[in-house]
Amino acid sequence: MTPLLTNFLLLVLAIINIAAFIIVGLDKRKSVKGDDDRYPEVSFFLMATIFGSLGIFLGMFVFRHKIRKAYFPLGIGFILIQQLVLLILLYNMYLTK
Known about the structure:
Radius of gyration: 15 Å
Oligomer: single chain
Helix content: over 70%
């Protein structure tokens, strides 16, 4: 894999995770204000599955949001572990040659 493609993929991952982190913060702000127009819970899991799990996971603990529901930290954490394993495998397959 070329360095240009590698840098592009890292940039895309960073953008996805920053957006995920911001969305958790925005949803927390809406929940504190009592706003009914909040992000559905499924949107957090969807964003996590497109490699935004690190941003969601960090946002949950930084903003103390969605941590009371056990399935959120466990589910997002499980997705994060899966994605880290996948990234390590891909790195070993394509970038160490």
